[in-house]
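Reviewer 2 asked us to include a model.

Predict the structure of this chain.
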Amino acid sequence: MKALKKIAILSVVSMAGLTMSAQQEPMFTHYMDNTLLVNPAYAGSRDALTVNALQRMQWVDFKGAPVTQTITVHAPLRDEHLGLGLSVVNDKIGPSNNTSVFVDFAYIMKLSPKSKLALGVNGGINVFQASLSSLQLEQQADPVFQNNISNQTTPNFGFGAYYYRERFYAGISVPNLMQNNYSVVNEPDGTTQMGSEQRHYYLIAGTVIKMTDNLDFKPTTLVKVTAAAPAQLDLTASFIIMKRLMVGVMYRSGDALGALVGVNVTEQLHIGYSYDWSYGLATSKYNQGSHEIELRYDFIFYNKKQIHSPRYF
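Predicted model (structure tokens):
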């Protein structure tokens, strides 16, 4: 019975990944370091040419579990009021794979000597594919699964606002406004819709509180809201030790608990790792948790006199 139960859960989750992959955007424990993916107004805010690469391996040892890679690149332009970015995401869940490429543009306004407000827009494409015929079904003749979805390309765009100071930030955004459909063509029945994108709304915020000369407290949050689903809240509490080592814990409502660690190897290079355990899922007993590895590098300093080390956001 336990074996049958495990197989049933695996099948359900694999199918959920297929039909919902376009609806549920990837989640990240390092959301506070992957801000460009949820808010285009973040582009250029670090006053450097910043490259951030991340890999998330979710539900390790669970067949068909999500594996996500992201790369973001952004920088201010010669005009200090403009920021430009590029975001690339590859998200694989079971037999499906979704790749997105977006360009981000921000207009940055200086509100005071210590604070700025940026308004951003993005635009790009999603390329979705699914090997439906590779699934093992109880009814192999099911016409819905006879044809694969091959490189369906859909456009999208979004916008956001981002306010920031040296030790505080807050933002709101809708990175994908369009709700595209994904479908397969079945003859002679015609087109069958397999899933559709759902619009996600994001609220982000964080601050850094100085406790001693060598210890800072950094709480951050991300709130995600979408139709027909409970709002999801991420809360993270981190400590920055001697401006070099970061350790923290996280909570994701209805889903996971986790821990993070990061090291500023140099003034420009940051390495991070996190582990989270999905306490809220029936599948948690069948996997070894989720891992993330992050690398960030700031290549160029545009105005070194105005840059503080570390840059907290």
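The first strand starts at residue 48 and ends at 57. The domain at 2-300 is CATH 2.40.160.40 (Porin). We have added this to the supplementary material.
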